[in-house]
Amino acid sequence: MSIFVFSQQKIKHKVVKGESVYSIAKKYNVTEKEILDLNPKAKGVLALDTELILPKYSKKKDEPKKVIPKGTTYKVQNGESFYTISRKFNVGYETLTDLNPEIKPENLQIGEVIRLPKGVKVPKEEKTKEVTRKSKTNTKNQKHIVGSGESFYVIAKKYNVSVEELRQANPQIVNDKLDVKDVVFIPSSEAVIVKGKNIKEEKKKIIEEEKTTLELTQKEKEEIKEEIDSLTENHRVEPRETKFGIAKKYGLTVAELDALNPNVKELKAGQVLVLRKNLVAKEDKPKTIQEYEEENTPTYVPPMDADAITKAEFLISKASECIGVRYRSGGSDRRGFDCSGFVSYTFKYLEMNLPRSSWEMANVGIKIDRSQAQKGDLIFFKTVRSGISHVGMITEVTENDIKFIHSSTNNGVIVSSVNEAYYSRRFVQINRILN
């Protein structure tokens, strides 16, 4: 009788190539903790053909509903922290944390409601501008039959409409889950009418303001030129260096470096390259306090918009199709991948061409704070002494963990956790590529 009950509550699973506790938990809709509780030896890399005991049903509970505080409150906006809010309302940082003991300052969420001291005046929220689409008179939306591997992003691109417009035209589709032969309605191509100010004009105004802010004064340009003119003139090529890396190191473009060295077609270790006048490598120059503070201050960026999130989900689905593909040094197709080859291969589905090495990829996009990580961001590690040497793509972010898919030397394409001892010691940075 006890055996019968056990068989009803538990199931067995045999590990296949490329599987991890994370991917198995996803497959059976249970938590990793529930698997590890039943299989204590399953921590780390899973051996092939290992039999795991899995719970038939997960006991995970829904997250408790957050209680909206009473009194004077404020809803957190994009890019805000306890520090910026305390400055905004001229209240002490400690006062703010004391009033909100249940909220972790390092994990502040957009839209979260926080308490403010009595007497603080909070401006009324501006009503969100509504965007509506004018449908053609007596014209039905065009229909599309979903094909194999198609997502909202692929279909939206095919018909030159936005993903959000596609969602609005198909409220019957839940969580963007499309099956082959599903019918998707394509919104008509009428112009979008915006109530209030024109959104395009607002965006244009913001871009112009940013350009003005970033422009250097003539005096600053002259000071930079004088500094450049006063420095050294040659660079000896180190093993594995590229023109892109050397040019970036000295503030040049690859075209400028080629113009100064017309006889150098292919780099070899020990070659001496001519540089513009007398340049000193950036890391050789002593940093000012301001430069140090700027480098060590996290870059806060707005969360991904709906379109970028859809792109991230699309990339993750494509990358997951490669789980189990072997590792191959220099490989960039399904015959075998190295880490950067795998990421580069995945992003080509969005027609995005990334650099071929992980440390060059680390200079693409925006370096963001770890607390702002989202699906689709690139995550970098230092696995050798020379610097960044490994890259993966984030597939899931929880309060205490970040999962990423990558091509590992020993196991090929797998999903790993940043909390694994090997990766937690070697984590370097996260870059936002999408959006």
Describe the largest sheet.
6 strands, antiparallel
Number of strands: 18
Helix percentage: 25-40%
**Overall CATH architecture of the largest domain:** Alpha-Beta Complex
Task: Give the strand content.
Answer: 15-25%
What is the spatial order of strands in the main beta sheet? 13-18-14-15-16-17
- Globular, elongated, flat, extended or rod-shaped: what is the shape? globular
Average pLDDT number: 76
CATH class descriptor of the largest domain: Alpha Beta
Determine the N-to-C terminus distance: 57 Å
What is the CATH superfamily label of the largest domain? endopeptidase domain like (from Nostoc punctiforme)
CATH topology of the largest domain: endopeptidase fold (from Nostoc punctiforme)
Structural class estimated from helices and strands = alpha+beta
As a whole number of angstroms, the C-alpha radius of gyration is: 26 Å
- pLDDT under 50 segments (min length 5)? 1-7, 126-139, 190-199, 210-215, 223-232, 277-287
Give the count of structural domains: 5
**How many separate helices?**
16
What does this protein look like?
By secondary structure, this protein is of the alpha+beta class. It has five domains: 2-55, LysM domain (Membrane-bound Lytic Murein Transglycosylase D, Chain A), CATH 3.10.350.10; 73-115, Membrane-bound Lytic Murein Transglycosylase D, Chain A (Roll); 135-194, Membrane-bound Lytic Murein Transglycosylase D, Chain A, CATH 3.10.350; 222-293, Membrane-bound Lytic Murein Transglycosylase D, Chain A, CATH 3.10.350; 306-432, endopeptidase fold (from Nostoc punctiforme) (Alpha-Beta Complex). Helix content is 31%, strand content 17%. It has helices at residues 2-9, 21-28, 32-38, 82-88, 93-99, 152-159, 163-169, 199-214, 218-229, 243-249, 254-260, 289-296, 306-320, 339-347, 358-361, 421-424; strands at residues 10-14, 51-55, 73-75, 113-115, 131-133, 142-145, 183-186, 192-194, 234-236, 272-274, 332-333, 336-337, 366-368, 378-381, 390-397, 402-408, 412-417, 427-432. The strands form seven sheets. The protein has a six-stranded antiparallel beta sheet with strand order 13-18-14-15-16-17. Strands 1-2 form a two-stranded antiparallel sheet. The protein has a two-stranded antiparallel sheet with strand order 3-4. Pfam families: LysM (PF01476), NLPC_P60 (PF00877). Keywords: Coiled coil, Hydrolase, Protease, Repeat, Signal, Thiol protease.
